[in-house]
Amino acid sequence: MSLPKHIAIIMDGNGRWAQLKRRPRTFGHIKGTRVAKKIITDCSRRGIKNLTLYAFSTENWFRPQEEVSLLMTILRRYLRRETDNLIKENIRFSIIGDITRIPTDVREAIAKSMEATAHCTGLNLVFALSYGSRQEITDSVREIAQRVARGELAVQDIDESIINSALSTYPTPDPDLIIRTSGEQRLSNFLLWQAAYSEFYFTDVLWPNFTEHDLDQALQVFASRQRRYGRVLTNDKVEKLSN
Ligand code: IPE
Ligand code: IPE
Ligand code: MG
């Protein structure tokens, strides 16, 4: 079975899950974090090389202050408690997103986890935090423009690979599979450039209910897809193209 080298997940539906149980939205975020923890291990044990989890978008800052600060607390707690486990599982942790907006204590926890897991060679785990793809693309355009202004780069030399390497996701390969839970079928400002040839898997399952079985189902669907990258090719040639 062909496995994606990179899975990206839009973990959506925590609030609705809690609402169904007549509990506060934050209850859903706490359960959602436990599910994320489990899915990280499942991906790692299945030999997935890269996993990006959309944990908090640039637009999520507009949520009620109380919800935002609880999400930050959950994240800080997760990192403090889980870093040892990540090391044990040989998982390297990093983040993409606008770190400057993240509270100092959370930023410190992130830095510690990144440092402590920097030597790990198994799963490359990336949290998209305070992340927005348009912001990321804007930042990369600015960086490239500065290189041009300094005379380090000629305008005619700007190509896809220059843009690619200026993005915060570099050098992680583009996601092969993007999963979104909760029935919504949109990207919500996630990996717009990188998703050019990703396979999408949408499920109605709310993130707090997402299980290893759902992951396997997504992997099976992925394995059955034929990726053509715009060409007309036989199966084995398509396989080679993606490697
Ligand atoms: C996803 O669940 C988690 C975050 C965006 C932080 P939501 O909080 O968006 O849950 P719904 O979509 O309102 O149910
Ligand atoms: C996307 O979910 C962001 C995360 C899952 C972290 P949202 O719930 O914020 O997206 P919309 O508002 O439904 O598009
Ligand atoms: Mg949502």
From TrEMBL:
Residues that bind substrate: 13-17, 25, 29, 57-59, 61, 63, 180, 186-188
Entry-linked InterPro entries: UPP_synth-like (IPR001441), UPP_synth-like_CS (IPR018520), UPP_synth-like_sf (IPR036424)
Molecular function, one GO term: ditrans,polycis-polyprenyl diphosphate synthase [(2E,6E)-farnesyl diphosphate specific] activity
Keywords: Magnesium, Metal-binding, Transferase
Highest taxon listed in the record's lineage: Bacteria
Active site: D12, N60 (proton acceptor)
GO terms under biological process: polyprenol biosynthetic process
Keyword Transferase in annotation: yes
Protein biosynthesis found in the keyword field: no
Cofactor binding note from Swiss-Prot or TrEMBL: Binds 2 magnesium ions per subunit.
Annotated Mg(2+) binding sites: D12, E199
Alphabetical list of SUPFAM superfamilies matching this protein: Undecaprenyl diphosphate synthase (SSF64005)
The protein's Enzyme Commission number: 2.5.1.-
Oligomer status and interactors: Homodimer.
Family in the record: Belongs to the UPP synthase family.
HAMAP family found in the cross-reference section: ISPT
Chain's role: Catalyzes the condensation of isopentenyl diphosphate (IPP) with allylic pyrophosphates generating different type of terpenoids.
Protein name: Isoprenyl transferase
Organism: Bdellovibrio bacteriovorus
